Amino acid sequence: xxxxxxxxxxxxxxxxxxxxxxxxxxxxxxxxxxxxxxxxxxxxxxxxxxxxxxxxxxxxxxxxxxxxxxxxxxxxxxxxxxxxxxxxxxxxxxxxxxxxxxxxxxxxxxxxxxxxxxxxxxxxxxxxxxxxxxxxxxxxxxxxxxxxxxxxxxxxxxxxxxxxxxxxxxxxxxxxxxxxxxxxxxxxxxxxxxxxxxxxxxxxxxxxxxxxxxxxxxxxxxxxxxxxxxxxxxxxxxxxxxxxxxxxxxxxxxxxxxxxxxxxxxxxxxxxxxxxxxxxxxxxxxxxxxxxxxxxxxxxxxxxxxxxxxxxxxxxxxxxxxxxxxxxx
Length: 329
What we know:
Layout: H1 13-19, E1 27-30, E2 35-39, E3 50-54, H2 69-87, E4 91-95, E5 105-111, H3 130-133, H4 148-161, E6 168-172, E7 174-176, H5 179-183, H6 190-199, E8 204-211, E9 218-219, E10 221-224, H7 231-242, E11 247-258, E12 261-271, E13 289-296, H8 297-302, H9 308-318, E14 323-325
Parallel strand pairs: 6-12, 11-14
Antiparallel strand pairs: 1-2, 2-3, 3-5, 4-5, 6-10, 7-8, 8-9, 8-13, 11-12
Helix pairs in contact: 2-4
């Protein structure tokens, strides 16, 4: 849906197209927060082509607000996946011109197996007739009643609805260095633990896991959310999948941002079984997890061998910052 608060220009042809989308025969569907999707002018020769228009009047991709960038790029990928699936095309041409209409938009063009000029870009072939472009085609291929766009709308909306979440949820497990204090752990509330750890960080440790893939870096237990999953439930699920623990109590302690967009949530987590406090806590086997280990909070904070995101989470927690910016994910 086009928000009434979005500022559009009266003398822009694509702004007018956005405002009149419900009466535009080329309009296909609402592509989410930032995009409207139309049948592309390229569809006359490449059926299935989309024209995707950004909902605000800007000229270049670099003008997209950081908070809108992940959703925009992810949506474009969803549209491309839908076109590839429905058309079974050989490849995709994704282009951004805006030479005539100075408003950010993209054309997503399927290139087919039976083309005569498959090595040329689609915009270089505008002077070619349909008969010249293809070795052979079915009669229905260029038919206005071709059901391809009905299938594309359905598949595109499915891809958008079922795409993976861009958020993560992760758990901060803390234990005191003092064994006497550790024996009293069951009596503490999450607020008690947070207060004590912030007051004496050198006397508290956090549990990290070493991942068994990618860069084998130390990280918090947790991960990306699934479709339509809240970050806190993503954290609970990931903890169960990665170490097999059931969380009894948890509380949000900070939120991680990147390039102006929120990436994930960090929760102090307390499992129902206090065996998690042991030096080698019992856990299930998980292919993604190489090992788990406790580290002193100040050590993590000051050691550059730990990823920026890990040190950033610890720093934000200790300094009682509800939000922090990270250069990595």
